[in-house]
């Protein structure tokens, strides 16, 4: 395997917070599925658990694989990532019938006090029914796809790792809503006749076709960032855009058309088969029957209303929630400083080399700053991974303030880049000199940078603030459900009134 291809395959960017959340979701689902299997519940067979786990795995691959690492360099990789988030992971997750196993896998206290009541809350049911209505789901899918592929929002996602995560969350949630009427996961109940899903999918395919056609047939580059970054695989940025549109066209159409054909074949079966399937669906319990609130269909009771040791359950849940929440918040707050937060700061050619330098956007802060360097052959644009890269930061007007660092690909998520942390101890104007050596050839590059002192105060700890908000909501919900009720007290009659009433009754 060529060294460049090997480096591409090794360029994984594992997100710690998302990985932890997906593993926790898988464990909760497996626990719930195992308890249901042990209770001989027939509605979640083994293949559903396998489908759900494959959906989580495909979601993790989309977020952690080289598709994410090279999404800011190659539009084709970014489009493949979007296809996995929208066309592969959501249907697999929904085919796992995730609602009941996930609730069943929670601690008893959490399922009884929070998950069950929330899923049977009238407002939650109305919101869910509105979102999963086929018309609303179709509009939401189309608006999400077209909005995030407009140049302004797309460039915003490329420039900021935080907005990139928001984009991924929007794609995943909109796709889960879109595929809900198609999969109709148990124990939900269908809103339209089954044959109506066929035109529903075809309209979704038209939305996907229209957007992909814009990318394929456009005679200009829609996203300027791909014109600025170096071309890693040789083909021009406009060809990359057309290839991304073709991938979206083909994969998206297959994802829509194949289920539409399968459902159409089902609808063309005999009336007897359809009647039997309809009666079987009617016998299955649904959320409207109060399944998630009463858990009556499960042998022995899904959640018994009165359990011994409720105080122990509450304390255990609080400790488990605190540990899990703090771990997730710590991983989310420590996920900054990745390659996604770097932008192109220098792109020059000198001698036999073409060099691109990536660093954080704007003024750099005093202290350690990460720089990444891409070295390419000037003539062939081949990536030179074995080139020796040395960085020297020197303060303007003070040659004694020089900081040296040697860049390597070991600490870089993108193994085609060579990264190093350079110490910038003082504020002011600095010059970053990049020295390249390869095969007896040498070239120097220079990049001016501005260093400022970081603003006073701590950065906003949004993961911990979010954890406190969720905790406050759960506490408020628990106190509201268990607030004491005052019985209606009738005034006690005095002795004179009682004697009068007794005399009246005797007469």
CA radius of gyration is 30 Å
How much helicity do the residues have? 55-70%
Q: What is the spatial order of strands in the main beta sheet?
A: 3-9-8-5-6
Oligomer: single chain
Q: What is the chain-wise order of helices and strands? A: HHHHHHHHHHHHHHHHHEEEEEEEEEHH
Give the beta-strand count.
9
- Shape, per Cα inertia axes: globular
Average per-residue pLDDT, rounded, comes to 83
Note the main sheet: 5 strands, mixed
Number of individual domains: 2
End-to-end Cα distance: 110 Å
The proportion of strand residues reads: 15-25%
Number of helices: 19
Please mark out the parts with pLDDT under 50 across 5 or more consecutive residues, or reply none: 280-308
Structural class: alpha+beta
What does this structure look like?
There is one protein chain. With 507 residues, the protein is α+β, with helices and mostly antiparallel strands. Helices cover 55% and strands 15% of the residues. It contains 19 helices and nine strands. The protein has helices at 3-9, 16-38, 46-64, 66-69, 75-95, 99-105, 108-119, 122-131, 134-148, 151-159, 161-183, 197-217, 225-228, 237-267, 271-283, 291-294, 310-333, 462-481, 495-506, and strands spanning 342-350, 353-360, 364-365, 367-377, 388-395, 398-407, 418-424, 428-438, 441-452. The strands form two sheets. It has a five-stranded mixed beta sheet, with no helix packed on it. Strands 1-2-4-7 form a four-stranded antiparallel beta sheet, with no helix packed on it. A hairpin with a 2-residue loop joins strand 8 and strand 9. It is globular and about 75 Å long. The N and C termini lie far apart (110 Å).
């Amino acid at each position: 395997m060529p060294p460049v291809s090997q480096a591409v395959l090794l360029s994984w960017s594992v997100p710690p917070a998302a990985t932890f959340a997906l593993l926790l979701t898988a464990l909760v689902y497996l626990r719930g599925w195992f308890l249901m299997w042990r209770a001989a519940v027939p509605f979640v067979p083994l293949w559903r658990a396998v489908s759900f786990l494959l959906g989580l795995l495909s979601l993790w691959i989309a977020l952690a694989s080289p598709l994410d690492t090279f999404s800011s360099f190659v539009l084709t990789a970014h489009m493949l990532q979007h296809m996995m988030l929208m066309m592969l992971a959501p249907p697999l997750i929904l085919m796992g019938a995730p609602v009941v196993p996930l609730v069943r896998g929670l601690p008893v206290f959490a399922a009884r006090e929070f998950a069950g009541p929330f899923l049977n809350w009238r407002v939650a049911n109305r919101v869910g029914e509105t979102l999963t209505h086929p018309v609303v789901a179709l509009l939401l899918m189309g608006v999400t796809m077209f909005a995030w592929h407009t140049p302004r929002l797309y460039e915003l996602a490329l420039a900021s790792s935080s907005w990139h995560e928001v984009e991924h969350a929007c794609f995943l949630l909109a796709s889960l809503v879109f595929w809900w009427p198609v999969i109709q996961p148990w124990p939900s109940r269908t809103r339209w006749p089954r044959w109506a899903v066929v035109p529903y999918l075809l309209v979704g395919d038209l939305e996907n076709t229209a957007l992909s056609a814009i990318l394929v047939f456009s005679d200009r580059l829609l996203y300027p960032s791909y014109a600025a970054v170096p071309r890693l695989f040789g083909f021009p940025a406009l060809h990359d855009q057309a290839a991304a549109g073709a991938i979206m066209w083909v994969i998206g159409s297959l994802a829509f058309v194949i289920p539409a054909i399968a459902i159409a074949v089902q609808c063309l079966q005999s009336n007897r088969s359809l009647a039997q399937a309809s009666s079987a669906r009617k016998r299955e319990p649904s959320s409207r029957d109060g399944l998630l609130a009463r858990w009556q269909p499960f042998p022995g009771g899904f959640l018994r209303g009165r359990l011994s040791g409720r105080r122990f359950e509450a304390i255990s849940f609080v400790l488990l929630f605190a540990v899990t929440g703090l771990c997730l918040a710590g991983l989310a707050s420590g996920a900054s400083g990745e390659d996604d937060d770097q932008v192109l700061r220098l792109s020059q050619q000198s001698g036999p080399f073409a060099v691109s330098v990536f660093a954080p956007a704007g003024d750099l802060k005093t202290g350690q700053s990460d720089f990444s360097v891409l070295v390419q052959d000037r003539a062939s644009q081949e990536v030179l991974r074995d080139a020796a890269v040395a960085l020297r930061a020197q303060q303007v007007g003070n040659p004694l303030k020089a900081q040296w660092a040697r860049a390597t690909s070991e600490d870089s998520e993108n193994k085609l880049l060579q990264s190093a942390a350079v110490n910038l101890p003082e504020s002011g104007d600095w010059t970053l000199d990049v020295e390249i050596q390869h095969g007896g050839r040498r070239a120097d590059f220079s990049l001016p940078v501005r260093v400022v002192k970081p603003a006073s105060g701590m950065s906003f700890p949004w993961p911990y603030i979010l954890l406190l908000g969720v905790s406050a909501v759960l506490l408020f919900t628990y106190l509201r459900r268990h607030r004491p009720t005052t019985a209606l007290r009738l005034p006690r009659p005095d002795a004179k009134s009682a004697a009068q009433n007794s005399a009246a009754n005797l007469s």
